[in-house]
């Protein structure tokens, strides 16, 4: 049995190092990993990443420039459209106003003609009324004169009649 224990003790000492030695080796490996391997990997990757980032930045700048140019063109087209639209609105309003004036003139022209014809007719009618008044006035004068003559004749006839009645039937 001593042989087995001796064999195992040799095995443990030589093939499986003691725990403190193993811990020291692991700490050294871990320090090497942290201080050497990780920074080296970061440097290697960061170079690749830095190149990729730089390329992405350049691509971004190019794409951004394209987008800015497109945006400028869109803004220019919008401003031209706004200008054309404003001019179109002004032109349309001017056309509408001029058409309204023409329409008003076309509506008022027959009214003016009618008013002139009405004025001519009224003037003619007023002249006829004045003529009729003159005729009526002249007729009144003539009638008054003739009526006066008739009344005078009636008075003379009445006087003659009274004289005849008195002479024939009257007092003696």
Give a verbal description of the structure:
The protein is mainly α and 172 residues long. It has one domain. It has two helices and no strands. The protein has helices at residues 2-15, 19-169. The longest helix is centred in the middle third of the chain and has 151 residues, at 19-169. The protein is rod-shaped and about 220 Å long.
Keywords:
single chain; 172 residues; mainly alpha
Helix and strand topology:
Layout: H1 2-15, H2 19-169
Structural class: mainly alpha
Number of domains in the coordinates? 1
**Beta-strand fraction estimate:** under 5%
Mean pLDDT: 86
Number of strands: 0
Concise synopsis of the structure shown:
The protein has 172 residues and is mostly helical.
């Amino acid at each position: 049995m001593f042989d087995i224990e001796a064999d195992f003790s040799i095995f443990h000492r030589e093939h499986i190092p003691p725990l403190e030695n193993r811990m020291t080796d692991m700490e050294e490996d871990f320090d090497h990993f942290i201080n050497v391997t990780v920074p080296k990997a970061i440097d290697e990757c960061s170079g690749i990443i830095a190149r990729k980032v730089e390329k992405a930045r350049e691509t971004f700048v190019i794409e951004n420039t394209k987008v800015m140019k497109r945006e400028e063109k869109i803004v220019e087209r919008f401003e031209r459209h706004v200008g054309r639209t404003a001019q179109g609105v002004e032109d349309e309003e001017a056309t509408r106003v001029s058409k309204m004036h023409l329409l008003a003139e076309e509506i008022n022209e027959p009214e003016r003609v009618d008013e002139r014809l009405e004025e001519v007719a009224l003037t003619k009618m007023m002249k006829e009324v004045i003529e009729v008044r003159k005729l009526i006035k002249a007729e009144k004068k003539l009638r008054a004169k003739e009526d006066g003559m008739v009344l005078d004749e009636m008075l003379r006839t009445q006087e003659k009649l009274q004289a005849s009645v008195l002479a024939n039937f009257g007092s003696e």
